[in-house]
Amino acid sequence: MKTNFEFTLRGKDWFGPFIGYWVVVLLLNTPTVIANRMMQAGRTPNAGYVVLQLVIAVASVILAAVFVIIFLRIFLPKFSVGGKAFAFKGSIGKYIGLNIGGALLTIITLSIYFPWYIRNIVAYMASETTFDGANPSFEGKGGTLFKYYLLSLLVPIVVLVIILGIIFGVTMAIGASTAAGALSTIIIIVVFLLFVPFLYLLYKWYVNIRWNDVTITWKTSFWPSCGFVLGQLLLTAITATIYWPAAFLRIYRYFTDKTVLARSGVETGRLGFEGDIGKGYRLIWGQSLLSVITLGIYIPWAWANIGRWLLGATYHQESAALPPA
To answer: Is residue 301 part of a domain?
Structure first.
């Protein structure tokens, strides 16, 4: 049996909080803008400027935490499967505490704690979500994310920078400035390519949910998945970003189709996406252009329209109804 998702969000449902968020952001950043202009006029920043930046940084963390909870309380009840809606009962106070504590520990440990900070945030979000009378739990481990961060991103980038730094130094020493410029471009491209496997591992780590006795994970392979994502990103770059909505939709369909529900290791169902790529491409571009033309005011309606179409074309299919592999 196949059951399509439903998403009933409308732009007006979150226009007020959306505008409120950006008004507060603008007010919060006004002192920084004024201080920067004073610096451009020749005034040297003092201790007060440093304190101001710290206060704004803390306030920004609190602001983001407050509005994340507000938005989730609006969005999740609009999302349902088989006539059963999700609910979210997260606490603003507790979420602020998690973020401030996690940010401080991340700074104190020179970013080593960051994977556990992210893990605690995701686990809290899952535990405060309810569907069909039960709360999901997040099964990802902070140590696993740290390993991904260390081995698939940090170490390769450090090694690459050292090697290319040596080559760059040699080329500059012999006066080959053209080669040095080419190397700079190569560094940028390679670092960008390194983000593809890291992001794949990161999102696969995210999709590790248990609901009652059912686990939800990706059934994917590393190299084919990274190759597919890279191909879509290259098409986006080649077309000067004109292709990006199609890239997004094809990547979404690729991984949605590989999202598996299992009980005791036995597949019981999986998700799928049946939306027409051409229709979605036109919808996303149209909504994006309207958002730009209206200087962002239309964004709540754009997100709602795209979300209703995207999730409405996403479905859950029980294994008994799956076609043979």
So the answer is: yes
